[in-house]
# Entry
Amino acid sequence: MSAHKHIAASPPLDLGRWRSLPGWLMGVGGVLALTGLLVNPTQFGYSWLLAFMFCLSLCLGAMFLVLVHHLFDAGWSVPIRRFCEHLACLSSPAMALLFVPIAVLATRLYPWLGSDLQHSPDHALAVKWPLFTKPMFYLTSVFCFGAWWLVSSNLRKWSLRQDEDGSAACTYAMRRWSAVGIFLFAITLTLAAVLWMKSLEHAWFSTMYGVYYFAASVWLTLATVYVITVLLERTGKLRGLLHEHQYYFLGTLLFAFTVFYAYIHLSQYFIIWNANIPEETFWYKLRERGSWWNIGMILIFGHFFVPFLALLRIDAKHSFPLMTFLCVWAWLMHFFDLAFNIMPVPHPEGFPLRWLWLDLGCLALMVGWLLRLFLGSLGRHRPYPVKDPRLAEALGHYHPKPRLMSGGELGETEDIEEQLEGPIEPEQAAGGTR
# Structure
């Protein structure tokens, strides 16, 4: 039995008992975050930054999936495009509001913000002028959130408009926005990773850091999207609209980005180790001290070898229990990965277990709020693009060739609904599950 038939044949999943989950996450997380802010504002800033970069990974990873869907004119990803658009739209203004505590505590997190770069003897700062200045820090942040809002909102706007009449103009508009958006995406993601995370240690140089954050973000998002897809099918929102190749392609992409992330991480380490320049090697030297060495080993074996070996088999990509485990595992590994990048600055002696409650509290608060916004968007709109021209292709059905008549003339093509198990009723399917 195929994975799709197995999942479709499973009993419908009732998420009624989980509807209060966002509220619980926000309540518990809010209490822990507020306590941390009152006890130690600086530590709260680092914990908040860790949670922020984690959630931003999901938003930007989803935006990338929507962009490449249109750029490659993909068909298989049509049913999952809509909820990826909702995730991408969380990048702004929702994430912009969550950035406010970082902007307020910026001088505590980034000491270089108070430096006079034009007259500074610090070579590492002087050569990065004017980007590493207080005005540019805030202007660049505004530019990033503005670009993400512009791209994500327009892609979803035209996608929703396509539901009304299925006009080809909507398809072409989304392709044009994706052509522009992929450049804005690359620029802004790199700027965000450099200014908000790498600049915690401003003297460090790395030309691969933006790609490194990108690879990890898409890896995390693919695992999350796989589980969301299954849950939406089990709850009825996507029932009958998915073919087994959706799950296979998502699993294959997850496998590909597992290798890509490892390649980027290894390349960065190897180049820095081989060059042996003090202003580059100090970053890794710091992360070999104390328990940070153990975290590094966890990333090597847990972030690469576990998912790599688990996804080698083709049938593994169709196993919902395994993929659910890998999704949870991806969240855990990405948390360790971001902690490995951020927390050695305030805690060079090792992973700060005593502040783990604050890290998890900030993450719970953000995830709870973003989950509530995501579920709200999912409930207000159709769960999939009902009039996308490639919807039938996504189901695994193709228009037949015209039949050749006895006289050599072309006859009418067979009705596509005759090839399906039943007629496609997008209005009914969407309306019954909203």
Remarks:
- The chain has one domain: 3-397+424-429.
- The chain has 18 helices and no strands.
- The CA atoms of residues 22 and 400 lie 47 Å apart.
- The radius of gyration is 24 Å.
